[in-house]
Queue: 3 jobs
Job 1
Amino acid sequence: MISTKSNKINIVIFTIYFPPVISIASYRLEAFAKYLDKEKFNITIICPKTENDEDFKEISSINVIRLNNRPHILKVKFSNKDSFLIHKFKALYNHIFNYFVPDEYKNWREKAIKIFKETENLQKADIVISSFPTVAPHLVALKLKKEGAGFKWIADMRDEMSQNPFINSFVKKYLYKIEQQIFSEANCITTTTPSFVSDFSKLSAGKICVEEIRNGFDFEITGDYNYNDIFTISHTGTFYSDIKPYTFLNAIASLKAENQLSEIKIVFIGTGNTIVIHEDLKGIVTTTSKIPHKLAVQRIKESDANLLVVPKSMSKAIQGKLYEYIASEKPVLALTEKDSEASKLINRCNAGFVADFNNIDEIKSIILKAYDLWKNRRRLKVDMDYFSQFHRKVQVKKLEKLILEKI
């Protein structure tokens, strides 16, 4: 248990992602900062500066230190003005870049270490939380611990590290070495799904406690429910790697050709130019660039169904958007393995319908189920009593208990 001379426990959180950055990763760390009890904790966030920092209303009673990161001269940035081909070229280039430069935040990392060592209040940290990805925050905490810092260290793993299915062998070896050092130096690992808990426990051979702190939703359930004049399916977020909507779009095209869908609209929110829409579907499919998170949540609530795409390679993960989908009480159309973590949660909450990622007939079937609900003005009876535990403030209470009672 933590012992401190002051009345409050001092927590320093190192993270690359924090608002105003639009990312599920940002909202997880924002929830930590927002919901940890200010009567018990002093909280400092150390993160990179962004171009839009002035757009974010800082959380009261926490200290945010934003440090410049000198961008790597070889890394290219994406733009909403890029064509699909330019976007793909840049993505391929950055994939190659990441092969040789696994930590593009080295400059920020060095500044974070320096300011921690030179700032008296930071040196009094009782707890340090570092958040992965990227690896830079863990490297900051690891460096400080190896140099004798006396804080307790929680390594937060939003995603897999060395076991990530999308990384190359070079990065895998690099992350594996760091992972093993974390197991030796950290006091606890927190992660986001039961499968990840199991995997990190096995990787560490039981040398470190591994606790589940889920992602979640961060708005109140009002019970409001709407039906659009045109059946509207939305997807929030970008498409990358194996996460693609093409089997879904093929199923839509097939249903349209069979005259089984008379009225439908599909909205890809925040997708930008990451996918190609077939000419036959351009009249019913709309794509947007990233929008503020609150607006994205409003769009989720206003849709008649929400699309989730989880390929087999990501079946151990639960995309953060799923919690917001379920909280909206609109049917989730999930393209995923039947035994994936996402599928288990959807079925447990009676929150939607699941189809195999590659099975067009199954995908058509679940689309028609949601369409039938909309057409007949019916709705699923989602188990909100069970699901309420995934509000972010409830999950952060688990983090509080971990800090106060276990480490």
Job 2
Amino acid sequence: MIETTTNSLATFDSDEAKWAAVLARDAAADDAFVYAVRTTGIYCRPICASRRPRRENAEFHADGPAAERAGYRPCQRCRPQEISLAQRHAASVARACRLIEASDELPSLDELAQVAGLSRFHFHRVFKSTTGLTPKAYAVAQRAERVRAELLTRETVTEAIYDAGFNSSGRFYAAATHMLGMTPQRYRSGGEGMEIRFALGECSLGTILVAASEKGICAISLGDDPERLLEEFQERFANAILVPGGKDFDAWVARVVGFVEAPHVGLSLPLDIRGTAFQQRVWQALTEIPVGTTISYAELAERIGSPRAVRAVASACASNTIALAIPCHRVVRSDGALSGYRWGVKRKRALLEREQDHELAGGS
């Protein structure tokens, strides 16, 4: 089950915030801007260990090239013209991910650390902080993705087992239900026979549809037309047995509605999340964005160690079918504009305003 966290996500949208980051040598500001010192003609990273200038002598620029165009030269201590530590870590993690994706068996932690150019302990910590997953969890998600693809294309489950890289059927069946959310045969038949409970309700954002498999919540949809929500739901789970939820399920729906109205309280229900390894990396990172804050698609791509995969990140956000529990509404364009929300930009704006109002009120 994915749980939301309350990690801080700093923003530096004013000179005052940037100066505070310089004073604190805030690592979160490392790629956000550089500061220049008028009396020395030098620009630095916010985390530079050099003596801080007087506030009146400091000015801020978006990046090194902007500072250099303004006539400043880079600091020889923090080397702001070179790629940042976060960028180096992202590149190291990307190399390790490529090795995992290309390997039939999970490479050892030592092998991955060597490819990343980091010590064993440091690599494990950097990998998890960058992707939101441990190397083993990432490999399991990759294997699950490969298994899903093979099961749909091979004539038999046995062929799919070996083509997905399992050396024995015993190892595969021990992990199959966890990876697929159902038995291999059921997955090959498109979820045929799987029971999913569902119910429609109303909330301040319109009609809400909540659905759950035996593993947990598998869909939370919002819309204006109940019939359309039902049609989309039935199409998505065309081969499953769809069962209207009973009284016990009503309690789950009530908790989801309460979560829609007050996202800051959290959703303490199990989630049945199905997606590719990349999608799961994106979705895990989404759950770590605090209530009341936003980041850009580019920043999200950086966080998962794939800075060039901005479009793929946006696509993963659009593929999210569990509204609010995986808060893709907290991702905006680089210019701050709202776009690309599965349940409409109007709802996205309403959710963000509600969350930000709560934070401004002191989170009470």
Job 3
Amino acid sequence: MKDNNYTEILDFNDIKVNHHKKNKKRFLLRTLPLLFIPILICLTIISTHSNRLIPIPVNYIIYIILSLLFYLLLLSFFIIKKDDSKKSKKKKIKKILFTLFITAYIIGCASLIFLLYGPNDKFRTWFISTSMNTMSHQYICKWFYSDKEINKVIKGNYTKEIEEDTDTDLIDMQEEETYANEYEKQILKRDKDAAYKIIELEVNGQKAYLAAVYDPSKVKVAVSNGVGRYGQYATKIAENNQALLAVNGGGFSNAPDNQTGGRPTGVTISNGKVITDNTYSADAQSGGLIGMTYDNKLVLIKNATAYKAKSMNVRDGVSWGPFLIVNGKKSFIKGNGGWGYAARTAIGQRSDGIILLLVVNSNSTRTKGADMGDLTEIMSNYGAINAANLDGGTSTVMVLPKEEALKYKSDCTDNYCYINDPVDSALRHKTRGIPTTVIVTK
């Protein structure tokens, strides 16, 4: 009797061991194939750099990967279907969740490959033109595309600026008494004592704000307290200068020991004082110095140095670009202008002296917003005869004192708040530190 019981226990343990081995085998069948997916993606990336490594046609790699992914999807369902139907509900739920995870993983990988290398080039164009026009993310683009592919996209999307010096005689500061069109009416119809007027727009489904500043002598450049070393939020810079309104200014990069955007690109002048005069970031963007002269005219200066700017009577200025309109002539823009779609900030001046400050939102995935063509069209519609792109992306903000900001947003707990909706690199709805702003003073 004891022998029989002992035998039964042994049999039961054998069943458990076999069952465990069977489950382990099934788990390996489910998971091991997934380890090959990153390898296949890497092979796809490598194949696009055929001049360096493996000369495999990209389309063949895509077809192979999609076929294997489809096979893995069928395999995962087949394994679950073959499982014992008498399992507990808890284990069944786990299997379903695991299958859903595998499916989502496969679809995600396939979607990424399709976006990066598929027949529709809209994502590819956006990704390359956006990445290659940032200071610190160009290497990401080069992970996925060869120099040949990058150059092909850049050649199909660029901005050709007007090669002329700014003619300040075109600005006569005479206020119009009649409205030539609806845009003129929006700009000129205002309260008599208003320092500025904000016009709300929509650009590619995104909110935008255009500020018409009626006294150009009030438009100046303000900098962070630690310019050259660290940046500050535009709200803080505006508060420090008791500004009526502020937008972000020119291009910049992080200082080596501080990641808050403290180093302005090129020439920076504030209230007649030269803040920076360098050729920093010589992977140089188009454009140049965007300045206000002592006679309150916006000038756009190519190949600017501080000496050249001072000789042209510049009292305030930042460096960035491209220049969108010069002397009433619009830059030639092919495709998206080579900058992709993003949150944007721009500045312009009409012939009557009114300064235009524009900000355009982007969406949470940073795939919408404005390109250079959109900025040029808006500035032209509202009468700008000179206009330029300022820094954009996460930096894009329009800042107002709390009382005014609450007219455009539901909450503002600080003394100054931005009224647009900036999105940072982590897709959070917040801005970042910057070294320069364009402000409207009291």
